[in-house]
Amino acid sequence: MTTLHAIDYQSLRPVAVHFLNDRIDSVQSLDCDADLAASLPFVAPGLFDIQINGYHGLWFCSETLTEDEVTRIALALADRGVPQFFPTLITCSFEAMLHGVNTIRQACLGNKLVAGMVRGIHLEGPSISDQDGPRGAHPRQHVRPACLKELERWQEASGGMIRLITLAPESPGAVDFIRSATAQGIVISIGHTAATPDQIHAAIQAGATLSTHLGNGCAAMINRHRNIFWPQLADDRLSVSVIADGWHVPGDMLKCIVRCKSYDRLLLTCDVSGFGGCDPGSYQAGGVAVDVLDDGRIVVAGQTEFLAGSGATTGDCVAQLLNVMKPENSDTPLSLLHDIWNAGSTKPASVFGFNNRSLRAGNEATFTLFRLPSTDTQSGTKYSFQAVASYSEGVQVSSLASGTGAD
Fold first, then answer.
1. Of 367, 402, 377, 279, which is closest to residue 45 (Cα–Cα)?
2. Cα separations (Å) of 197 from 165, 179, 234, 242, 338?
3. Omega of the bond leading into 139 within 30 degrees of 0 (cis)
4. Which of 33, 252, 349, 394 ranks highest by number of CB atoms within 10 Å?
């Protein structure tokens, strides 16, 4: 039996979490003095990010991806407080996608720890808009219509691990593709699109249930009435993912998305780029050229407006959304931590059928332990995120060793 002493992210009270193998045995109140309580990290269901493109210069869509690189990315994410995720392959050649999904599958077959962390695969493309702006940093030469034969080959190579596909509703054949893919249990998400409202409505009617990083992957200038936002925000059949890293979506827009969708239909993703964790400079991979700026932004090379993925990870997005949404002049500034954290953990997990992630006896022992260091600014308290440890299915997968509160 392993025990974690920590602060419950929901009650904000000290607890002892007991778990054996991969299951929680019990969660009990912990009687301790104020000094000990102040030293404890928070404990919460493990962060679960559905859009991880790579890290430290490694990409899941690389034509040379190796099993060792899959493991290295997974463990780097664990050290950032993310014990479970979907490797994401952005638009690339048929062969690169085939190689990528097969390599991910082999890495899971060869390493039980990696298999516990990788809960599916996300294909972000290749059936997206070919227009500048909506296409984002995806290479134009590989954008192509939705093709069920390609999907069949990729799914076979992945061993059935493809769980999520992002596509543009205006892509030729999109509606028929959506119907077929959703019948196979694949979630379809609308993204990187310049679709009309009618095309978006048709995609939802065909079975699309998610929006990929709403507010990004779109034109810089839009029609005030007929645009991609209103139909996605208005339809309760769609949940939406957002990148709350402080750069991709302004705080005012994040508030509006939350108020339209509520926390029940909100998913946090960091959309971390393969250039995440890299030093400032110019980089290129798979036909994508970017600049990593001194302030942490990753942008399409040669300009500073269009972002090319994120350098943040999921816990950073939790802290940033907390900064945006926290009640002003409140005696309990962390009162929204539970809802916001769930948007990056239990909610994305539940969309894909993993419904046993809350801190209750019998549920999966997948946790993130973390701290939220705060600083006082002119606009109030500002939180940041500090990972302490990650556990996936009862196994500590992070290399961080201090301050876990485990015995």
1. 367
2. 20, 19, 11, 20, 34
3. no
4. 349
